[in-house]
Design a protein that fits this description.
By secondary structure, the chain is of the alpha/beta class. The protein has a single domain, classed as Aldolase class I (TIM Barrel). Helix content is 45%, strand content 16%. It contains twelve helices and eight strands. The protein has an eight-stranded parallel barrel, surrounded by eight helices. It is globular. One of its GO terms (cellular component) is cytosol. Keywords: Decarboxylase, Lyase, Pyrimidine biosynthesis.
């Protein structure tokens, strides 16, 4: 799989950062099928479970299940198996869980219908000072590369990183890597709680496969128009 094969509508993932299904359904009516991919994170998944993922699939959406799994290997493998039946296309786990945990997840995801795994490297909300606070002396870029290589060694071919590191990972891992980039903010949008951000065009030019966008779309007066504007920006960057 190479980034060149991705259509603009396959490159944008809209984050359903809502506390429950009801406001998410209202938003989806406003979005009016402008996008193909949706992200379901921990807050929404813990409230609604696999049933809502199945509902989204029934509406024709592809689902990125962003659970950031991080536990002992057996527990993570079980979680991968539990989510497989819901039909999500992508599922995240933390690379900091280590190679044994990731290898167990890869084995659990080897069955037909299982989601593709994405290893989360360093959260886009973290900078060098925050890494230092948890005992990591490396720069964010060095830590991202270290964890991406570890995940790659277990068979995981998708990574989550910030736009600041995507060019490095694309160079090191090549076209096979699926690089999913959160922290995307159109020019002029509020930064929010993100530290390492980029515009859609910048991230695509640096080698991103897919972009995750939340508040600039979900909190826009016209979510459909906001999404279409980002799709246009992506289209002019590939």
């Amino acid at each position: 799989m190479t980034t060149k094969a991705f259509h603009p509508t396959d490159r944008l993932i809209v984050a359903l950062d809502f506390p429950s299904a009801a406001p998410a359904r209202v938003f989806l009516k406003q979005l009016d099928s402008a996008c193909r991919w949706l992200k379901v994170g921990m807050e929404l998944y813990y409230a609604e479970g696999n049933a809502f993922v199945e509902e989204l699939r029934g509406l024709g959406y592809e689902v990125f299940l962003d659970l950031k799994l991080h536990d002992i290997p057996n527990t993570v493998a079980g979680a991968v198996r539990s989510t497989t039946n819901a039909g999500a296309s992508l599922l995240t786990l933390h690379a900091t869980g280590g190679s044994v945990m990731m290898a167990a997840a890869v084995e659990a995801a080897s069955v037909p219908g299982a989601p593709r795994l994405l290893a989360v490297t360093v959260l886009t909300s973290m900078d060098a000072a925050q890494l230092s606070g948890i005992g990591i002396a490396s720069s964010p870029a060095d830590q991202v590369l270290r964890l991406a290589r570890l995940a790659w060694s277990t068979g995981i071919r998708g990574m989550v990183c910030s736009a600041e590191e995507v060019a490095l990972l694309r160079e090191v891992l090549g076209d096979e890597a699926e690089l999913v980039i959160p922290g995307i903010r159109p020019a002029g949008a509020a930064i929010g709680d993100q530290s390492r951000i980029a515009t859609p065009a910048e991230a695509i030019r640096r080698g991103a496969s897919r972009l995750v966008v939340g508040r600039p779309i979900t909190q826009a007066p016209d979510p459909k128009s906001a999404a279409l504007a980002i799709l246009d920006e992506i289209a002019t960057s590939i």
